[in-house]
Amino acid sequence: MSLSFGYRLALCVLLASSMSVDVAAKSSLDELSFVKKMRLAKAGDPDAKMAVAEALEMGTDTKINIVQAAKWYREAALTGNYEAQFRLAKLVEKGAPGLKADKPTAVKLLQSAANHGHAASQNLLGQLLQNGDGIAKDEKSAVVFYRKAADQNLAAAQNNLGVMLLKGLGTDRNLDEAFKYFSLAAIAEDGWAMNNLGGMYEMGWGTAKDIEKAKLYYEKAASKGIVIAATNIKRLQSNIPAPTAPKP
Q1: What is the pLDDT confidence band of residue 239, given thresholds at 50, 70 and 90?
Q2: Where are the domains of the chain?
Q3: Rg (alpha carbons) of the chain, rounded to whole number
């Protein structure tokens, strides 16, 4: 039988109280065997619940079991752990054998965590809003959530916000701001931001045109596994103009 997390779970999470993470306690938990973590989790320890969920999802010191991982993320989420809400949302959004995909619940979980300042949830909620995936498409709201996460120095959100600013999606087009956010994300070693920053230098958008810097950032992006960056390098080496792009 598939396990489904519906509206009741989301409502419980929305009402959950916030939880502070004890770094020292987490460090101690990391040293314990999975069996001991499970004992603590069953005894009600909130950090152990999260540790058990992570172990079950990743297969650390135990077999991977996504259904049980979702169960323990739910237990941790109900204590007000917004990272647990985020991870549970990712699992129920896609589903897995024995775990029914449930996008509405995933969205509710993300909204709860995002509204409590969880950066990764803000970024993922922004993506769903931008694409209209499981929620009504709303590019303006996507920009709002990307910006909230970007302001917390989440590199993926900084890159996403840069793309919205570059294309003028959900906000006025602003090449200077796009360059700024791509730069910040590139400093944090985000591969897509490096590629996009290379494009900004190649086109002279938000900065002076500089082909050498464009090549440098394309190379950095390619080293991160961004396939299109390798294509951009070959194109520059062959003196082929960039594909048609929006004009500033």
Answers
A1: confident
A2: 1-116, 118-248
A3: 21
Helical pair 66-77 and 46-58, crossing angle rounded to 10 deg:
160
The superfamily (CATH) of domain 1-116 is: Tetratricopeptide repeat domain (1.25.40.10)
Contact 3, 99 (CB under 8 A): yes
Q: How far is CA 157 from CA 44, 61, 87, 185, 236, in A?
A: 34, 32, 17, 8, 28
Q: How far apart are CA 73 and CA 184, in angstroms?
A: 32
- Its sign, for the CA torsion 246, 183, 217, 194, is negative
Question: Cα–Cα distance between 111 and 117 in angstroms, integer?
Answer: 10
Helices 155-167 and 139-150 cross at an angle (nearest 10°) of: 140
- At 133, the amino acid letter reads D
Phi then psi dihedrals of residue 3, to 5 deg: -95, 125
Q: Note the pLDDT tens digit of each residue in 28-66.
A: 888 999 999 999 999 999 999 999 999 999 999 999 999
State the Cα–Cα distance between residues 183 and 233, nearest whole angstrom: 19
Q: What is the rounded CA–CA span in Å between residue 96 and residue 74?
A: 16
Both tokens of 240, joined, read 């082929």
Specify the 3-state DSSP secondary structure of 31.
Answer: coil
Gap between the Cα atoms of 227 and 89, Å rounded: 28
